[in-house]
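Listing S7. Sequence submitted for prediction.
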Amino acid sequence: MSLFEEVRGEVERTQVLVFAGGQAKRMGFIDKPKPLLEVAGKPLIDWCLEYYSRCGFRDFVILVGKRGDEIVKHVGDGSRYGIDVRYSRDPKLPGVGKGKALKHALLTGAVDRERRALICFPDDLFRDSSLPLRFLLHHLEGVRSKGILASAVFSWGVEYPYGVGEVDGDGVVRRFVEKPVVEYYTSTGLYLFEPQVFKLVIDLVDMDSEEPVEFEETVLPVLAERGELYAFVVPRGTWVPVNTLKELEKANNIFK
């Protein structure tokens, strides 16, 4: 089997979970669901679905929440993107979060618990057309050689959105830097989960919690402690998040 055939087979065996249920609280008031906000004249959800479909992914699950009907109406069955789409609606519980949304999708059968999943978000854009495929290959290498169960894409260095001062004991500012680059490995919100991770989600996510439960706060720390979480690092500028109106404007300038 050639490498091309192997990669194509692994892509076909991977389901893509698109988390599209966020309420965009950092955006202020907007008149549509966040995934339908436009960057360079195209809704974020279209950027997302087209990005992964161009890499050969065909099986998509979109997890929707408030105003999810508008997203369902826009995307439909996915045929116009050349993909198959099914949906999971957030459970009607106090404080959902991505953890509860994923567990609900697993328990209701919307997500196949026996297959690997690529997890992504419409408001995370990437300036690298081959990233999903290279990420998948990197993940598979980690599964085979290191026994990892999940992988995450990290950006090395992100721009801190405020000015930073170094202040001495007398209150004198000795150095001032506007929006410095903070040198941390920052998660971009793009993950690959082997099926074993879904059991952890079911075991660790408390559906009875009054607060939102995020899988990044419950599942990923456990995987990291066990040495079962693998990193794929991309250069700064590859990842373009859209979480605020200012970031939306920046994304427009980049992608138009």
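Caption to Listing S7: primary sequence and predicted structure tokens for the chain studied. The mean pLDDT is 93. Residues 242 and 248 are 5 Å apart (CA to CA).
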